[in-house]
Request: fold
Amino acid sequence: MVKLMIKKIIFLSLLTVHFFTDASEINIKTLDNKPLANAVVWLKSADTEPPSESEITYAMRQVDREFTPRILVVPQNAKVVFPNEDSIMHHVYSFSKAKSFELKLYKEQPKAPIVFDQTGVVELGCNIHDWMLGYIVVVDSALFAITDAEGNVELPATAGTYEMSVWHSGFSDISKVETSEVTLSGIDFEYVVKQPITATIDFTTDEFDDY
Amino acid sequence: MTIKHVLNGLLISLVITSFSASAQVKGLIQIRAVASDDATAFLDNGVGLYRHGGDSDNVLLSQGVIDYKADLTTGWSAHAVLNANQEPKVSLGFTQAYFQYQPLTRSKYKWHVRVGGFYPLMSLENPDIGWLSPYNYTNSAINSWIGEEVRTIGAELTIKRPARQFNSKHSFSFVGATFKGNDPTGTILSWRGFALHDRQTTFNEGIKLGPIASLNEFDLRWQASQVLPFEEVDGRFGYYVGMHWDYLKKSQFRLYYYDNNGDPTAVNYSSGQYAWDTRFSSAAWLYKFNNNTRFIAQILKGETEMGANALIDNAFYSHYLMLSHKLDKHRLSIRYDYFNVDDNDTTTFDDNASYGEGFTATWRYQVSKTVQLGIEGSALKSFIDNRAASNLAQRISQQQIQINAQWRF
Reply:
């Protein structure tokens, strides 16, 4: 009986621990209190250091003359490949401070990955298809995510105090991130961005628009 | 040194320089079975305005295209389009061969230069490889003519204000070019008139003129029985300027003014080509109602003059309206064409007036990524004054049905 009690207590305390280590849900909102989708959120503390060398290789694909995903978040020092899945050539480039590069990409001819060793926002373009626009957000944390349509991210963060950063491609200066100190306690946390968000312009393109 | 020498030199250097570079080769083979009316096609020296007619092959290679692109440096690339043709005789030739310099710049404005032989990008009907149309097999009257008589052999500069760079929904491009050759451009419009076909002229080809009685007249005695549209006759430079305006790529508008600056009194006696002073404006518009349905229209209006004291002075005009709908693997495209040439000179022995209209309906089915099948029916009526001088009916009605099998690689 006592044994059973002890087991129950252990079980309950485990549950409690589990509760605290559970994912923290963060909700990002615009100035007019609407959910902000596609915002990048990352948390920094002593335990969230990104690995010095990434084992995962990330991919920024080009599909139907668009960057896919449009926004890719990677930890500092991550390797990123740029597979061209179109039948035409792409000339991907960035002039951003965090990483300046250019790659001529042919169908089924992969190039060596690029290591993103500087934190910051890398804006991608294609010199041939000038409507193509993509972002690689390089963060100095292992805890990051992009908000869904409801403006939510779920991050596996234990309760505690973090430096939280938020970035959105609709910021007037896309090289600036909003950073603040937050205390997560296991309950949903809400954050309202401090600036208006410029709407994303969608170009309806197809295979005949290169001409 | 003639234009041909320059182009040959360009092609040789293009092939040599690109061996070590990254190249992209695409190709398209299209076989056609066609049933047509009895009128002999202009390609076979007749007065029929379709590519195929009474004396034509019923099964033929309708397109054989190799599209070659090679990156030479970060900014420079080499481009060439090689076409194989079966009629009027088996031949191989280039329709485009040029170098492009498109630097990667920090500037929000982008620019590029093309040097060599290429199409001015004034039309929106021909965005497929080798300047083919993904819509109808038979091009509009406007682009049938551009494909046979208009080609830039020179240099073109484009400066673009891309929408993305300015966080705008509107893109603008400004185009300016200067070129040699193209002095006989306008000949075919005057003596044959507009036509409806997909037979592009390669750089080393001529277009047969058919039965034109006035060519027996003393004043026109130097004209050969064919037009060499890309010949240089007068030694003068021509030019064109253009503007592209895109709204979200949903609406695309292009406006061009072209002037070959031909000296109407110049003649190349050895090749039998007159210089024609040909000027025209072209406005093209593409509008996507949604991802599946689009409307394309183009208007072309111009004049051409040849000989001393306006011996020949014609005005030409054409427009087309096209609607194309794509549903899954099917694409249906229907088009109406109107065209005319007005004879504004007082030369009585050479009547150049003509007009006509055509209707073209095409259904294409994408069997796989590389194979496409399609069928096209078309009808055309034309009234051409100078047919009377050759004892032919001035008014002709034509119809044709064709089946095409296309393979890409």
